[in-house]
Structures are given as C-alpha cells and as structure tokens.
Design brief:
Strand order of the largest sheet: 4-9-12-11-10-3-13
Oligomer: single chain
Order of helices and strands: HHEEEEEEEEHEEEEHE
Radius of gyration: 23 Å
Number of helices: 4
Shape: globular
Number of strands: 13
Distance between the termini: 55 Å
Largest sheet: 7 strands, mixed
CATH class of the largest domain: Mainly Beta
Number of domains: 3
Mean pLDDT: 77
Length: 262
C-alpha cells in the first residue's frame, strides 16, 4: 500500500457483498487503483505519479504522430465546488467533516456534493471527501487510443499528457487499462483507455517547455519521444540503484574464521 494511503486508519469497514466489492470501495474512498498480482493486493493513488513503493514515475508526452487511432469523449456533468462527508464522533453524533474543495480553476459553481455514507471517523470522512472531489474533477474526460508504434513501456496507472493536437483533446490523463498484443507480420500493438488526469498537469508541462533554462522549470519529469520511437529509449536511469561498485566480498554469518594460530 502506498504510504499516503497506509497512514490512514480505518476503525471498521463493513462489507456484505464480496472481496471485489470491498476493494472497489477502498478504491473509491481513497481515489486509488487496486491491482492483484501473485495473491497480493496493491493500492496506489490514481493520480499520484508514483509506484506503490513511492518511486516517482515520469509523465509521458504523446503527440499527433504517436497515435494510429485516438478518441476523446467529454461527458456532460454537474460542476461541484466541494464535497462533504459526515462521520460519527465519540458520542455517536453525526458531524460534518471539513469539505474538500475542487481543484478545477475558474469554476463558476457553488454546488455541494454530499456523500450519503456516514463514516466512522473524521479522518476517514475527510479522506473520502477528498477522493470524491478528485473523481468529480476528472469525471468528464475519457480517452481511448491505439499507438502508432507498439510500446511495452506503456503500463496502467501511467500519467500521460497529450499535446499539440487541438483544444479539447490536449490535456492530462491517467491510464486505467493497457493492452499489448503481438501479431506475426504487424508486430506489437498497444491500446489503452483512461480518464482525465491531474488538474494542472498539462499546464505544468506547457510551463516546462516555455520557461527559460534554469529558472522556474517544474520538477516533474516529462518524457517525449519522436516518430517511430518508444519510451524505453528515453527513460532515465533508475534512481533506486546504489552508486558505485561494491568490491568487497561479504562473509556469510556462521562461516568459518581463518585460523589465527595459537
């Protein structure tokens, strides 16, 4: 579990459906994505840009030449300025938690989204309000695409920025599902789907390309490839590798000690 979620304490969480239903509820409550691999469940923030071990992951930039097929849908939705969740205090009284505000800039709305569920603690309610608000901010944008070149480095949970096509399509997205298939004769084919990503991420990318060198460039890493290239060609070296070469030979615990004489 990612540290930002693992720090949340859940006094109790009742579930009467299934294990899958419980996982889906945790995804909604903490704005996360769950994956099951080798009998283990991982839970990672949907738009956090980091792995479950909290290693930063670069944002991929896709241009018009990156796509063989691209579809972006904009769903009409009500714009909410904030989300509010209630919880039970130590006396069992229903109390409103602090509201989570929308991150959408220039929003002309004061509408409030009230979560129907009453949570067991203030921290749990606040986390749910923040998660719900983040989902509402993203809910109108969906993307589906096939890449011009199959790319095995495109994975689910990857954050991408689409740039240089046209307003309404350009923007940031987080990939939900990625499918790689191989066909003899045509090679690797990569398709993916996702939803609107982190609000402000596309603007951050734009600022990183226009800021003077050495001044005010955002810290987020954006990777761009040219026509016919894949992201494996431009990925930076892993940051979690120990520097230098260890030239010493470790001695196993319990191994015999050389005879010093006597």
């Amino acid at each position: 579990i990612h540290p930002s979620i693992a720090d949340e304490k859940i006094p109790s969480l009742s579930n009467i459906t299934s294990f899958g239903g419980l996982i889906n509820r945790l995804e909604r409550q903490y704005d996360a994505v769950a994956k099951i691999n080798d009998g283990r469940v991982s839970l990672v923030p949907r738009a956090g840009g980091s792995s479950v071990s909290d290693f930063a992951q670069p944002t991929y930039v896709l241009r018009d030449y990156s796509f063989a097929d691209l579809e972006v849908t904009k769903e009409s939705r009500g714009d909410f300025a904030k989300a509010v969740a209630d919880y039970r205090d130590e006396n069992g009284n229903r109390t409103p938690a602090e509201a989570a505000m929308s991150a959408v800039t220039g929003l002309d709305s004061e509408a409030i989204f009230k979560l129907p569920h009453v949570f067991a603690s203030k921290d749990e309610a606040t986390a749910a309000a923040k998660s719900t608000m983040a989902q509402l901010d993203r809910s109108g944008d969906r993307i589906g695409a096939t890449l011009a070149e199959g790319d095995p480095w495109i994975r689910d949970l990857q954050r991408i920025v689409v740039s240089g096509i046209r307003p309404g399509i350009d923007g940031s997205y987080t990939l939900d599902a990625v499918r790689h298939s191989y066909e003899k004769g045509s090679g690797l084919r990569t398709t993916f789907s996702g939803q609107g990503g982190v609000n402000g991420l596309a603007a951050e990318f734009s600022a990183s390309t226009t800021s003077p060198s050495g001044g005010g460039v955002p810290s987020t890493t954006f990777l761009t490839v040219g026509p016919g290239e894949v992201f494996g060609m431009v990925l930076p070296p892993a940051a979690n590798v120990l520097p230098g070469v260890n030239t010493s030979t470790p001695r196993l615990v319990g191994s015999p000690v050389p005879n010093q004489g006597g």
